[in-house]
Specification:
Helix content: over 70%
Shape: elongated
Largest sheet: none
Low-confidence stretches: none
Distance between the termini: 67 Å
Order of helices and strands: HHHHH
Number of helices: 5
Mean pLDDT: 82
Structural class: mainly alpha
Number of strands: 0
Radius of gyration: 29 Å
Length: 116
Protein backbone atom coordinates (compact mmCIF):
# COMPACT_ATOMS: atom_id res chain seq x y z
CA UNK A 1 0.00 0.00 0.00
CA UNK A 2 2.82 2.33 0.86
CA UNK A 3 4.55 1.69 -2.46
CA UNK A 4 1.36 2.53 -4.38
CA UNK A 5 1.09 5.89 -2.61
CA UNK A 6 4.73 6.72 -3.26
CA UNK A 7 4.37 5.73 -6.91
CA UNK A 8 1.23 7.84 -7.27
CA UNK A 9 2.86 10.89 -5.63
CA UNK A 10 6.02 10.58 -7.74
CA UNK A 11 3.98 10.19 -10.92
CA UNK A 12 1.86 13.18 -9.98
CA UNK A 13 4.92 15.39 -9.36
CA UNK A 14 6.59 14.23 -12.57
CA UNK A 15 3.50 15.12 -14.56
CA UNK A 16 3.09 18.50 -12.88
CA UNK A 17 6.73 19.59 -13.02
CA UNK A 18 7.74 18.00 -16.31
CA UNK A 19 7.12 21.23 -18.23
CA UNK A 20 10.12 22.82 -16.54
CA UNK A 21 12.30 20.05 -17.98
CA UNK A 22 11.59 21.31 -21.48
CA UNK A 23 12.40 24.94 -20.72
CA UNK A 24 15.59 25.06 -22.79
CA UNK A 25 15.63 24.97 -26.56
CA UNK A 26 18.22 23.24 -28.65
CA UNK A 27 20.14 25.83 -30.71
CA UNK A 28 21.02 23.19 -33.29
CA UNK A 29 17.40 22.15 -33.86
CA UNK A 30 16.14 22.24 -37.43
CA UNK A 31 13.73 25.04 -38.24
CA UNK A 32 10.37 23.26 -38.53
CA UNK A 33 8.64 25.58 -41.05
CA UNK A 34 11.60 25.31 -43.42
CA UNK A 35 11.53 21.54 -43.08
CA UNK A 36 7.80 21.41 -43.83
CA UNK A 37 8.29 23.73 -46.82
CA UNK A 38 11.03 21.51 -48.22
CA UNK A 39 8.86 18.46 -47.71
CA UNK A 40 5.94 20.12 -49.53
CA UNK A 41 8.21 21.11 -52.44
CA UNK A 42 9.55 17.57 -52.68
CA UNK A 43 6.02 16.15 -52.65
CA UNK A 44 4.99 18.59 -55.38
CA UNK A 45 7.98 17.65 -57.52
CA UNK A 46 7.18 13.97 -57.13
CA UNK A 47 3.70 14.63 -58.53
CA UNK A 48 5.03 16.61 -61.51
CA UNK A 49 5.32 13.62 -63.91
CA UNK A 50 1.76 12.64 -63.03
CA UNK A 51 0.56 16.16 -63.86
CA UNK A 52 2.47 16.18 -67.15
CA UNK A 53 0.85 12.93 -68.21
CA UNK A 54 -2.68 13.81 -67.10
CA UNK A 55 -2.94 17.54 -67.84
CA UNK A 56 -1.17 17.68 -71.19
CA UNK A 57 -1.33 15.91 -74.54
CA UNK A 58 1.78 13.83 -73.73
CA UNK A 59 -0.06 10.51 -73.67
CA UNK A 60 -1.77 11.16 -77.00
CA UNK A 61 1.50 12.15 -78.66
CA UNK A 62 3.40 9.11 -77.36
CA UNK A 63 0.61 6.79 -78.54
CA UNK A 64 0.64 8.34 -82.02
CA UNK A 65 4.43 8.06 -82.22
CA UNK A 66 4.39 4.42 -81.13
CA UNK A 67 1.64 3.64 -83.67
CA UNK A 68 3.70 5.40 -86.33
CA UNK A 69 6.72 3.27 -85.40
CA UNK A 70 4.60 0.13 -85.68
CA UNK A 71 3.21 1.28 -89.04
CA UNK A 72 6.73 1.64 -90.38
CA UNK A 73 7.33 -2.01 -89.49
CA UNK A 74 10.28 -1.47 -87.18
CA UNK A 75 10.18 -2.88 -83.69
CA UNK A 76 12.76 -0.94 -81.69
CA UNK A 77 13.89 1.88 -83.95
CA UNK A 78 13.75 4.56 -82.60
CA UNK A 79 14.06 3.35 -79.00
CA UNK A 80 11.41 4.12 -76.40
CA UNK A 81 13.61 6.79 -74.77
CA UNK A 82 13.82 8.68 -78.05
CA UNK A 83 10.05 8.47 -78.51
CA UNK A 84 9.51 9.72 -74.96
CA UNK A 85 11.92 12.62 -75.54
CA UNK A 86 10.21 13.56 -78.80
CA UNK A 87 6.80 13.37 -77.14
CA UNK A 88 8.00 15.57 -74.29
CA UNK A 89 9.42 18.18 -76.68
CA UNK A 90 6.24 18.17 -78.77
CA UNK A 91 4.16 18.50 -75.59
CA UNK A 92 6.18 21.54 -74.54
CA UNK A 93 5.77 23.01 -78.03
CA UNK A 94 2.00 22.43 -77.98
CA UNK A 95 1.45 23.63 -74.39
CA UNK A 96 3.69 26.73 -74.54
CA UNK A 97 0.93 29.13 -75.72
CA UNK A 98 -1.33 27.86 -72.94
CA UNK A 99 1.41 28.43 -70.37
CA UNK A 100 2.03 31.96 -71.64
CA UNK A 101 -1.71 32.71 -71.50
CA UNK A 102 -1.91 31.39 -67.93
CA UNK A 103 1.09 33.49 -66.88
CA UNK A 104 -0.26 36.66 -68.47
CA UNK A 105 -3.67 36.25 -66.85
CA UNK A 106 -2.13 35.69 -63.42
CA UNK A 107 0.52 38.40 -63.77
CA UNK A 108 -1.58 40.97 -61.88
CA UNK A 109 -2.02 38.63 -58.93
CA UNK A 110 1.70 37.86 -58.86
CA UNK A 111 2.58 41.57 -58.98
CA UNK A 112 0.14 42.38 -56.16
CA UNK A 113 1.53 39.57 -54.02
CA UNK A 114 5.13 40.68 -54.56
CA UNK A 115 4.42 44.34 -53.68
CA UNK A 116 2.35 43.53 -50.58
Amino acid sequence: MNIKKITFVLTFFLIIFSSSLFAQTDPSAVDQPALVTKLAILAGLSLLPFAVMILTSFVKIIIVLSLFRSALGVQQTPPNQVLTGLALLLTIFVMFPTGVLMYNSSKEVIDRASTA
